[in-house]
Design goal:
Elements lengths: L5 E3 L9 H20 L13 H4 L2 H17 L2 E5 L6 H10 L14 E5 L5 H10 L5 E7 L5 H26 E5 L5 H9 L2 E4 L13 H9 L4 H14 L10 H14 L4 E6 L5 H15 L7 E6 L8 H6 L4 E8 L26 H18 L4 E6 L4 H22 L10 H10 L6 H10 L5
Parallel strand pairs: 2-3, 2-4, 4-5, 5-6, 7-8, 7-9, 9-10
Antiparallel strand pairs: 1-10
Helix pairs in contact: 1-10, 1-14, 3-8, 4-8, 4-11, 9-14, 10-14, 11-14, 15-16
The structure holds 5-phosphoarabinonic acid.
Length: about 450
């Protein structure tokens, strides 16, 4: 099989000794095995490992039919969710879309608007204001069905849909993606007669983009979800437990980033020269941050888009504290060609670029920056993908998921829980005097100097 994701670790050579990676090879092989035999930490959340090969044609067809219904009914579909119930769809949508299409009115699919990923009041007001003259529908996504941010947004969106269309029609404009049986959202959906899609019990939020969590909104947006899943399937095969370490890009990436971490490189910068990957990097940050950042350990995931951020973060990367390594996602082919024209007078002194494509200039910036950063003490991992299309993005998603599972085990943590996320919720509920939080309310008010 032609590699979809080519991993180049040659620019880490000067930073690691031969034995650093060799030492991790055996551990990475063992960690890959744990994902397959289910004997590692968090083993009740391993449904994503074989997910691409288990998505059925019937499921894709059902998602397609529902997407078609929403597309027929709505000019704007509001997708409500947070964290793993938001970032995957947002990432793929941005990677696949022409950012100017809606503005240039070239779009023949509904606008996809996201809500429930913030509690910001102005965002909510402005979103509802933006859709006041558009027909609307909603997809509400929450595995637990109890997360505050999407629950608040859904109440507001649901009321608006019911006000406009009545309860019966609202039921055909609202689709829920949630747990098979648990949670308030499941109960509400059953009561109101919303169509529901299930998030499998054994797939955690940040590993759920290839379930209806990601696939349904993406299908509404006109993304080829079959190709997305097919790309992920190819990567599932390419990173399987039987693939030797030397040929398994996910195991090698996991090993090399942990070797760097153990040498003191504590921050990984995901860099790309493709602005459409900005939200892909956000998805990646959640995947790695929530999976690895625990027990006082973990590589801090950060991201930059070049060359834009070379004019903001470039100085630090080149000469700041030396605890960074960089992982560059390099896209080999652009979709379109834009050439720089020659000018007779060359007043702007740019004729040295005349005849070149903008992409060639971007490529030289990439090669030059990698060398400069390596010279400045930043080890570099390069991941090359052929182009931005559904198949490639599907493969890249699964590549990072697999590497994340392996990497979490190399780190010695449970990569599939997120106990730390509860701390802010406890305080927020105490401050909002949620029933059941009376003792916490009392304690937090004392701490803030208020009495109760
Ligand atoms: O990865 C995770 O599990 C989290 O980021 C969740 O996706 C996020 O907290 C949203 O949870 P839920 O889908 O239950 O509303």
């Amino acid at each position: 099989m032609k590699e979809i994701v080519k991993l180049d670790i040659s620019k880490t050579d000067g930073f690691l000794g031969d034995t650093d990676v060799v030492a991790l090879e055996q551990e990475a092989v063992r960690s890959t095995g744990l994902l397959y035999d289910g004997t590692g930490k968090g083993n009740d959340f391993l449904g994503w490992v074989r997910l691409p090969s288990s998505v059925s044609a019937e499921e894709l067809a059902r998602i397609g039919r529902t997407a078609e219904r929403l597309r027929a009914k709505a000019d704007a579909v509001i997708v409500i969710g947070i964290g793993g119930s938001y970032l995957g769809a947002k990432a793929v949508l941005e990677a696949m879309s022409n950012p100017f299409a809606a503005w240039a009115k070239k779009q023949n699919t509904p606008r996809i608007l996201f809500a429930g990923h913030t509690l910001n009041e102005d965002y909510m007001y402005e979103l509802m204001d933006a859709v006041k003259d558009l027909s609307i529908a909603a997809i509400v996504i929450s595995k637990s069905g109890t997360t505050t941010e999407p629950a608040v947004a859904f109440r507001i969106v649901r009321e608006e849909i019911e006000r406009r269309y009545g309860k019966e029609e609202a039921a055909s404009r609202i689709v829920a993606v949630t747990d098979r049986e648990k949670g308030v959202l499941k109960g509400l959906s059953d009561e109101e007669g919303y169509e529901t899609f299930v998030i499998p019990d054994d797939v955690g939020g940040r590993f759920s983009v290839l379930t209806p969590v990601g696939l349904l909104p993406l299908a509404v947006a006109g993304i080829d979800i079959a190709a997305l899943v097919e790309g992920a399937r190819a990567m599932e095969r390419a990173t399987g437990v039987d693939v030797p370490f030397a040929e398994n890009p996910a195991a090698r990436y996991a090993a090399i980033r942990n070797a760097l971490y153990r040498k003191g490189y504590k921050v990984e910068l995901l860099a790309s020269y493709e602005p459409k990957l900005q939200y892909f990097a956000e998805w990646w940050k959640q995947l790695y941050g929530e999976s690895e950042g625990k027990e006082g350990k973990g590589i801090f995931p950060a991201s930059v888009i070049f060359t834009t951020d070379l004019h903001s973060m470039g100085q630090y990367i080149q000469q700041g504290e030396r605890m960074l390594f960089e992982t560059v996602i390099s896209v080999a082919e652009s979709k379109h060609k834009v050439r720089i024209a020659p000018e007779e007078k060359d007043v702007d002194r740019l004729n040295f670029l005349a005849g070149k494509r903008v992409g060639e200039v971007n490529r030289m910036a990439e090669i030059g920056t990698i060398l400069a950063h390596v010279d400045g003490g930043v080890p570099n991992i390069r991941l090359e993908i052929p182009r931005l299309d559904e198949r490639t993005i599907g493969a890249l998603i699964y590549f990072f998921e697999k590497a994340c599972g392996i990497s979490g085990y190399l780190l010695g943590v449970n990569p599939f829980d997120q106990p730390g996320v509860e701390a802010y919720k406890k305080n927020m509920f105490a401050l909002l005097e949620k029933p059941g939080y009376e003792a916490e309310t009392c304690a937090i008010k004392k701490r803030l100097g208020e009495t109760k």
